[in-house]
Design goal:
The complex is a heterodimer of chains A (about 40) and B (about 625). Chain A has about 40 residues and is mainly α. Chain A has two helices and no strands. Chain B contains 22 helices and six strands. Chain B has a two-stranded antiparallel ribbon with strand order 1-2. A two-stranded antiparallel sheet of chain B has the order 3-4. The chains are: A mainly alpha (about 40), B mainly alpha (about 625).
Chain lengths: ~40, ~625
């Protein structure tokens, strides 16, 4: 059970980091601000 | 020995002849391509003082005028001779039928090439024979359709000449430098196709097989170039270049061919043709499956249907993205054109298109779920299918929600405006992008389940792999939906960029999860063989549905693309002054598309029947071990 939780946490960290990076860099490459809502 | 050497020599000579045929148009065109440079000299020789220059409407470069202006037509028998019928509808019919068959005969040889290559590189002899038989079955279907394509091409030209002589005359005067290349490419295509088909038996092993495979590469290069040339005409009609504002040719044929929309059209059409070709072959296999009398035949056609469907869907998945690129380029070329397409006169047709795209993906998923039934061990996925159905339905319903609907004043008042207070929120691009990406991601998930249906991973990290895969898909869904929701809260100029990370998320699932799954399934334990032929009849109807939806959607998109020119033969250059220079109602267009689809399917059934008359059982000895044999068809299995 403990091992499963570790696997889930590690997977989630990798996936969330990956998709956030994808969103940020692909918006940035278009000259757009992905974090617009959070800055305003 | 002498005979073998003779065969080798002969096959190499045939291959060289094909390469020669391929290069011949280029050699012939060299003086033509140089004409742009010669033209000024020619004009100078005629009279030093009389050199007229014009500015390219798209490239904005100056060039020597080398052609007549676009004719200003008038409604009458000179420019628009007619029968007692709407000329545009006749042309629509001839064009659409030629396009259906043309797409089919261009797509199927590409499948053949891929499958024949798989057969050549596969180490398993029985599998190699099966792949070879399948490739042969594919080309056999295509060959029968090829003659009909040529006949329909002839009918199309005669229809143009008879009903739209002024327009056709102008278009052929602009493309005159490459018209003969197009004709020569047809000769090359026919010659190569016949040698490729009739040489199958004689070139089935060793070195000769490689020569045969090389022939298929040349065949497909010729076919693709043919399509690119044909695309340049429609590209020119939509976004003309290489002419001045009066439509006078400026001597640079490359500018005329390489218009703003040419490349997006090329990519979109290649993918579309492949998806369509896969759909038609899958429907053929489904029909043969349903009509089969023996288990062996059922197994063979089940497998054939699966391969055709998988190839078709492999090209269907990137198709919406290619369409997105095309639309983006349309907007970049003329914003008004884009608005007419997606937010104005033709917007309702896009709702119908969304419905058809949704049907394509639903049918694909349904087929895959049914196909899980022929694998032992795949039962574990069955209980989760209902969740996929739910997700797909949600994505689909959002995807097809219109922004506004046509209403009576009373209905308008009852609803409180043109937009429904709740559902109206889903009728915007932000939500629709989310909807279609959810649908595609779910289809990818279904494929991943199918690929691991009868297998259990034996790699030491399989537990982590499974959890990671689940998290990746879960996060992908959250990201797609999250970006769609975010779109409601940010300005339009930022929102428009959100589709790029959404697409990247879907493609990440496609590439990373397929790759991860392949690694995990390397050396996996099999729960049992795939029992080809043991699949429900319903699945085969799903394949027929898939093919019909492809055909209908192709007709619809062709109509939309053509209609966006509104009352122009050549956009902003040559006006359509015929009485039919108006946009049809959605209902009329839908009826016309349905008629074209019906005609195509009836005629292609006839073609299939014709093909079955002279049936030649197989180029190889037997359909080795087909029914539920241990050998498995796709590389992913």
């Amino acid at each position: 059970m403990g091992q499963t939780i570790v696997y889930v946490v590690v997977s989630l960290v990798i996936c969330v980091a990956y998709f956030t990076a994808v969103d940020h860099f692909l918006m940035d490459s278009q000259g757009l601000d992905f974090w617009y809502l959070f800055r305003k | 020995m002498g005979l073998v050497a003779g065969k080798k020599l002969f096959s190499i000579m045939a291959l060289c002849a094909m390469i020669g045929l391929l290069l011949l148009p280029i050699a012939v065109s060299l003086p033509t391509l140089a004409m742009g440079a010669d033209a000024p000299d020619a004009v100078k020789k005629d009279g030093e003082a009389k050199v007229e220059k014009g500015r390219d409407v798209y490239y904005k470069t100056e060039g020597i005028v080398a052609g007549a202006p676009a004719p200003k037509t008038v409604d009458g028998p000179r420019d628009y001779p007619r029968y007692n019928f709407e000329s545009r509808v006749l042309l629509w019919f001839a064009n659409q039928q030629h396009l259906y068959y043309g797409s089919f005969v261009l797509a199927v040889p590409i499948f053949c090439m891929v499958i024949e290559f798989m057969g050549v590189v596969t180490k398993d002899k029985a599998m190699a024979k099966r792949y070879d038989q399948l490739a042969y079955d594919f080309i056999k279907i295509s060959l029968t359709a090829y003659s009909l394509t040529a006949i329909l091409g002839g009918i199309l030209i005669f229809t143009f000449l008879t009903l739209y002589p002024a327009f056709f005359g102008y278009l052929s005067s602009i493309f005159r430098p490459v018209m003969h290349i197009y004709a020569l490419m047809f000769v090359a295509e026919s010659g190569t196709l016949y040698i490729y088909y009739y040489g199958w038996d004689k070139m089935r092993e060793g070195f000769l097989k490689w020569i045969h495979l090389s022939m298929s590469v040349i065949l497909n290069v010729i076919g693709t170039l043919l399509m690119f040339l044909a695309n340049s005409w429609i590209g020119f009609m939509m976004s003309p270049a290489g002419v001045d504002e009066q439509g006078r040719y400026l001597g640079n044929i490359w500018h005329v061919i390489h218009t703003a929309l040419w490349n997006p059209l090329n990519v979109h059409r290649i993918l579309g043709n492949m998806a369509f070709g896969g759909g038609v072959v899958a429907a053929y296999a489904a029909y043969k499956f349903l009509a089969s009398k023996t288990d062996e035949d059922r197994a063979h056609y089940d497998w054939m249907g699966y391969i055709a469907m998988a190839l078709g869907v492999a090209f269907l998945i990137p198709l919406p993205f290619a369409g997105y690129w095309l639309m983006r380029e349309v907007y970049a070329y003329r914003q008004q054109m884009g608005i007419t397409l997606m937010g104005g006169l033709l917007a309702w047709l896009f709702i119908i298109q969304a419905t058809m795209i949704g049907i394509l993906f639903l049918s694909t998923n349904y087929y895959l779920w049914q196909a899980l039934g022929r694998m032992r061990g795949a039962e574990k996925y069955q209980r989760y299918i209902k969740y996929l159905v739910f997700v797909l339905c949600c994505g689909y319903l959002v995807f097809i929600t219109p922004h506004t609907i046509v209403m009576t004043p009373a209905e308008l008042k009852a609803m409180g405006g043109q937009q429904h207070p709740v559902l109206g929120n889903y009728g915007v691009m932000s939500a629709k992008n989310g909807g279609i990406n959810v649908i595609i991601t779910t289809t990818i998930l279904s494929f991943v389940w199918y690929m691991r249906g009868n297998k259990v991973s034996t790699v030491s990290w399989s537990k982590f792999g499974n959890i990671f895969m689940g998290c990746f898909f879960g996060c992908a869904y959250v990201n797609i939906v999250g970006l769609a929701v975010l779109g409601y809260y940010i300005p339009a100029n930022v929102r428009v960029g959100l589709s790029v990370p959404q697409v990247a998320t879907t493609l990440s699932c496609l590439f990373f999860m397929f790759a991860l799954n392949s690694f995990m399934m390397k050396g996996a334990k099999q729960m049992g063989p795939i029992e080809w032929g043991k699949i429900s009849a319903r699945s085969q109807y799903a394949l027929i549905m898939l093919a019909t939806a492809f055909t209908w959607m192709m007709g619809l998109m062709g109509y939309i693309r053509s209609s966006v020119r509104l009352f122009w033969h050549v956009n902003e250059i040559m006006r359509d002054n015929s009485p039919w220079a108006y946009t049809h109602t959605v209902g009329f267009a839908a009826n016309m598309i349905s008629f074209n689809v019906l005609f195509f399917w009836i005629s292609i059934l006839f073609v299939f029947w014709l093909g079955s008359l002279g049936i030649k059982k197989a180029p190889v000895e037997a359909k080795a071990g087909v029914p539920g044999g241990a050998a498995q068809p796709a590389g992913s299995h």
